[in-house]
């Protein structure tokens, strides 16, 4: 089996896959004999792992940098809102100030994981987009909701990547990410409360602004292979407490769906001065 020839052909078709496959090869060789590594089965498994990495921001350190970029954006967005004169009503200002503090602490934690100085990776922003998001209070909250819900789904999207890597570093990063993820969900609920909406992503209340991709594929009735909407609507189901519309909404609200790194960067990209 001419593996080198096959690698060459694959790299011609997709230059990026060479890097992905090299990472998968190095990882699998840690637990695979040299003889086994020469077999077609090994090659197929390596290709599968390389393509499974689609949606990941990279290895554990790359994922931390990806998360840090998003946390910088959230921190600076809330700070900009906090210090824009006349933007925030007195009644909700404490919420925004507290969320800004949380986001700053998330930045500090992720910078600590990377061992870098404060703001060492501070991105430059597209000020036109940022200023548009601060145009008025309703617009500010619309963008805040989008950023928070994107953040929740972004962290979930990388959890599987960290589990797949399964190194001491990835396990440490996963623990850090989970500590942040739950707080981002609370932020999202707080922003929805400020908007007089249901406090979890809910069909019909998510909206399409500023970007419909924030809620792409969010409303899923099937979880773990089970169609929960059908279950709750079964005539035989003695727990049938809601109308079909209410039970469907309840199922949708009960679960968050992941976003890939590519999807997240497509949503957040307009905030940055240079392509992410």
TrEMBL record:
<dbReference type="InterPro" id="IPR009078">
    <property type="entry name" value="Ferritin-like_SF"/>
</dbReference>
<protein>
    <submittedName>
        <fullName>Ferritin-like domain-containing protein</fullName>
    </submittedName>
</protein>
<dbReference type="InterPro" id="IPR006311">
    <property type="entry name" value="TAT_signal"/>
</dbReference>
<dbReference type="Pfam" id="PF13668">
    <property type="entry name" value="Ferritin_2"/>
</dbReference>
């Amino acid at each position: 089996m001419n593996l080198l020839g096959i690698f060459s052909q694959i790299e011609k078709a997709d230059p990026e896959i060479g890097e992905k496959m090299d990472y998968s090869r190095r990882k699998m060789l840690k637990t695979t004999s040299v003889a086994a590594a020469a077999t077609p089965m090994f090659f197929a498994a390596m290709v599968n792992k390389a393509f499974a990495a689609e949606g990941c921001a990279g290895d554990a350190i790359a994922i931390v940098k990806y998360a840090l970029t998003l946390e910088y954006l959230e921190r600076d967005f809330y700070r900009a809102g906090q210090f824009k004169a006349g933007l925030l009503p007195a009644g909700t200002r404490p919420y925004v100030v507290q969320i800004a503090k949380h986001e700053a602490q998330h930045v500090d934690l992720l910078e600590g994981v990377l061992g870098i100085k404060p703001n060492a990776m501070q991105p430059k922003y597209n000020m036109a987009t940022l200023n548009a998001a601060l145009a008025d209070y309703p617009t500010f909250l619309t963008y805040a909701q989008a950023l928070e819900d994107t953040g929740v789904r972004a962290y979930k999207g990388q959890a599987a990547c960290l589990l797949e890597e399964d190194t001491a570093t990835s396990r440490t990063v996963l623990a850090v990410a989970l500590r942040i993820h739950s707080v981002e969900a609370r932020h999202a609920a707080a922003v929805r409360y400020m908007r007089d909406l249901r406090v979890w992503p809910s069909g019909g209340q998510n909206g399409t602004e500023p970007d419909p991709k924030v809620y792409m594929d969010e409303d899923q009735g099937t979880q773990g292979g089970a169609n929960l909407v059908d279950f709750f609507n079964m005539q035989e189901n003695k727990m049938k407490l809601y109308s079909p519309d209410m039970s469907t909404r309840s199922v949708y609200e009960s679960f968050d769906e992941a976003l890939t790194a590519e999807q997240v960067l497509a949503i957040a990209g307009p905030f940055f001065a240079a392509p992410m």
